[in-house]
Structure formats: structure tokens, C-alpha cells
Amino acid sequence: GHRNDFVRADTCPNMFDFASRSRRFVNHRAIFPSATRASATSIATGCWPANHGLHGNTMGLPDGDGVRVHDVGDPAFVGKLRNAFGRTLKVPTLAQRLAELGGAIIASNVSPGAAYFQDPDNYGHVVHRAGSYGPGGRSLGPDEAPVVSHDEAGDEDLGEWFCTEVLQRRRPRLSVLWLANPDHGMHAGPLGSPTHLNAVACADRIFARVEETVEALRAEGEDILFLVGSDHGQESVREHVAVGARLVEAGLKDGPDSTDVVVAPQGGGGLIYIAPRAEARINDIVAYLRAQPWIGEVFAGAEMLHLGQRPENGLRIAFSMSRSTEPNEFGVPGLITVCVSEEKPGKPQGFGSHGGLGEFERHPFLIANGGGFAAGTIEHGVTRLIDIAPTVLRHLGLPRDGMDGLALPQN
After folding, report:
1. Cα–Cα 20 to 30 A to 52, which of 77, 217, 379, 400?
2. Using an 8 Å Cβ cutoff, are 234 and 373 in contact?
3. For the residues 197-219, what does the mean pLDDT come to?
């Protein structure tokens, strides 16, 4: 959740200093929705959601002659997706590509879905508090994988284990550390507040420990590509709108629990799945949404390709919520309306959220160090989350076939 404009000397001095000695990508962009679970999958596969098949933080799956929305963060969702379509993702992850070539260890302290969809078919090791797994789905005991708390202390513990156990001892071909913060702190209070800034400081301390370990390994002769970044930014919640309930009121959805038209909330955006029996309503739904002051943009059918989404398996409409660049009470710009439901009530007004097309929520940061990247340089061209995986494979001298992204420019 770390915004690019918060990579500053006063907020995270270690990362800021590191950026000055590395190559910084200042126009780095998130996917749509700018939500962690789909973002993690795009980072792991180098593909847009249209091609890897995980649509967002929530996602519709077939249910009889209709569709039901499921929370991708649920540890059971991997199995639900496999049962629905006979597979998890439509493309291989980095963990799958590296399974016989030195392996991957992913240590994550975010939601289970964001962790497991970096390697949903258990080709490598995924370490997470909800359950850790090795190749073949073997459950890892506490002697092999820590169970940490979902907070700053847990991030500190996981970061230390990552440095000592993963980087120094096991040394897989790919090592990933994904912290809960600052995203967790941004969701827990206003942006710019002490809660947010303490979460940034926590992540910065852990980063410094990882960098220290990487430099020690380089001194031993290891050739390490060190990538540091975030999956999205956040903006401040100004309003909640239950879009599904509004469609019921407008006569465009049969009822609150009906499966004809279902809305999958993503925070600052949403996805709408439509059963075949209700497809005649698509144009009316689009027209209704475009007339609402709480909507930003609406994309229907093939228009979703511009967002990296595709009309498939009932998904027919994507939308962003309204937003502005006005500041919050702490002077941090970016206010968004969020799409909610009874199951997904959204973060409180004034707190941080994301998931749409707001300028700041879709502007994460990225820094590359080593691996042939020119030190002390800045890339102003647009780069994307999907460019990370092909960059990793280029460094390892491996094929990058089947990816939507491009390896990042080194100088």
C-alpha cells in the first residue's frame, strides 16, 4: 500500500537513501482493480487479470444458473476456484517456472489469498500465518515456517526470519517478502496520521535489515537482483455506496441475494457479473451507472480490455468510483468513494482504501538495485506491476514466454 509520494527522506529514510543509489521508477502503475490479491497474482505471473484469471479481491464464481461473489482472501478460495474451472490460474507463476531451477520461497503477512495466489498450486514454499505449505502442498510445521501476528510486530518477526532463514541459509532462486505494513496501518487510520507514519517506519526498518543481508551476500559473491516496491497506493475514504443495493432499487437486480446480477466490491472500484438470463439488462445497467454522481468510469464488454480485464465467466462490467485530489485532514491528497456490501462494508470514512483508478491508489513505487540496473538513475517512462516477473526471469537468464509484461529498462 506504500504510495510513491511517501518514499521520502522524512517518512522512510532508508528506502529513500536506497533509491538514490539504485534505479527508481517514478511512473510505476498498478493494475485494475488496485487491490492486493489480483496485484500479487499479476506480480507473480507477469500478466493482466484478463490472462491470469484472478479478477480482484472479490470475484464471482458460477452458482447454478447464476453467479455468487466470493472473498479471494478466504484460504478456501483456492479450492473454490479450482472446483469451478478445473484449474487455479490460467498461466504459470514464477514459483512454477522455478520449481526445478532453485525454487521459490514466499513469506507473506497479508491476506491468505494474496499469499497463496503467488503459488496456488504449491510448486514452491509459501509461508503464511493461516497455513504454510511446501512443494506438493506439504504442510510446514513451526520448525520450518513461523506463525506471526498480522501487525507491525509480526512484520518484524517475519522480516528477521526471512533474512536469517531464507536469504542466509536456504538461498532459493527467488525470495519474496511481503509485509502487512504500511497497508495495514493505512487501513487502520487516516493517511498522514501517526498510525500511517508508524506503519511506514516499521516497513522502512525491516527493509534496512533486508538490505543489510543482501549486501552481506553480495560480499560473498552472490549476484542478486534486489527489487523493492508496493502493489498499489491508498486514498482516503469520503463516502460508502452499496452499488448492489442501488441496482436493486433501480429494478436492475432481482433482490439483495439474487444471482442474476452480482457486484463484487473492490473498494475504489467494482466488478459486475451477469447471468445469461439477465444479459438483456447490460445496456440499462451501464446507462444507470454512468448517470450516478458516485461513479467515476464504466467499462462494459470489450471496453474492459483497456483495464487489463476481459468479459469472461459472467464478468461483463467494471467500474471505478468517484474521486478527487483534495487533501484529507492531514494534508494528504486523494479522496475516494468506495463500493461496499453487507459482506464487504469497507474501511471507515477518513481511513485509507484503494481498488479503483484514483491517481494515488494506482501509483505504487518500485526501485531496482543490482542486476545490471544503473545506480543513481530515474526512469520516467510508465512501468507496470506486470513488468516485474519478466525482469526477474531476464536476470536469471530464463525464458519470458507467455507474459504480458516487459523486462524493466536498466538504464
Report:
1. 379
2. no
3. 98
